[in-house]
Structure formats: structure tokens, C-alpha cells
Description:
Layout: H1 24-39, H2 43-62, H3 69-88, H4 93-120, H5 126-154, H6 167-178, H7 191-224
Helix pairs in contact: 1-2, 1-5, 1-6, 2-3, 2-4, 3-4, 4-5, 5-6, 5-7
Amino acid sequence: MAAQGTQPDPGPRAGSADSPGRFGLLLICTVCAYLLAAFVSGRWVNAILVLLFTGAAVLALRNWPEVGHRARLVLGIGLAISVVMLALLFTTEIGAGIADVWIGVILLGAALMIIHRVFVFATVTMQSLYGVVSAYLILGLMFAAFFAAIDHLGGGHFFANGQPATGQTFQYFSFTTLTTLGYGDFVAAADPGRAVATLEALTGQIFLATLVARLVAQFRARGER
């Protein structure tokens, strides 16, 4: 029986050194961003996506063990830049391309924070699996943003054979590349797009074959024990 006047231990809180973090809300946010980008088009949708992606980065940072003054300063600067990027989305093609680059950078930072937090924690939990799935989806969205940036800043057609270059097609092309399905209906026309697509395919293979496989094996072994 617990001593009178003491409170039961609530367990490790999210973001502490004794917890892998809580990634359920982050996964929901990421899935919502994916569905929105997949089914709705328009620059106003891109503005909403900037907010969602910034929120995803904030949720990833929330799971960091120690969010000190320096991290809060970086967060404040990031939010300020996101506001500027929202304005650039509605200007020129170059402005939209710069905004897409910023979206990709935000998502890259979020993915790295999630992966680091999940794999430095020895115990694998359901929250760890939520985190790694979120990171995988974020990688696909990140490369889609970089493809869009190449299209806006390159001045030429991104896809070969005159295929339409929209937010939906970039996301479709990104995830078919990340998963190495390679349907072939959308192909990058120029070298920058091909180079980034190759990098994405390699990233997807490494992520699934090493990181996810290791995490699932540890989780299964923990269940058997």
C-alpha cells in the first residue's frame, strides 16, 4: 500500500529521458496532411499544409528530452519563417519554390528528430511504432515538396511526356518512388529530378530494410518475452 500523502507514479512523461515519446497525435496530423494534399488542390491548400507541417515539426520537438531556451529560440525563428513562406506561396513561381524548399526542410528536421528519439530509447513500444510510421510518411511528403520546388525553380517541365505537375502528382510520384513501386506513368524529365528521385528510392529501402525491420523485431521479441 502506498504511504499516506504520496501520489502514485504516473510513469515516464512524453519527452523525458525515460520515455520514447508520444507520437499518436503526430501520426494523425501527418495522415491528415497526406489526405488533404492527395484530394484537394490549390495554393490555399498549400498554405494549410505549411501550417500542418509546421505543427508536425512542433509535435516532433515536443518529444525531445530537454527542450531548452535554444530549442525554443529555434522554434520561434522557424514559426516566423513559416509565416513569411505563407506569403511567398501567393506570389511568383520563385516564391512558391522557395516556400516548397522550406516545407521540405521542416519535414526533414521533423523526420530526423523522430528517428533519433525512437532509436535512442532501448525499449520498443506502440508509441515507437507510431513514431517510425510518422517518419516514413513525412519522408514521402518531404520529397514531394522538394520535387515541387524543383518544378517551380527549374523553369522547365518536371515530368516527361508533358504529364501534369501538381501537388497530387508530386505526392503520388514521391510515394511510388519511396516504396520503389516504379509504375512508370510519371517519370522525372531532367537530371535534378532524377537525382532526387534516386536518393528517395535509396532512402526508402534503407528505412524499411534496416530501421523499421529492427524496430519490429525488437517489438516482437519484447512480446514473446
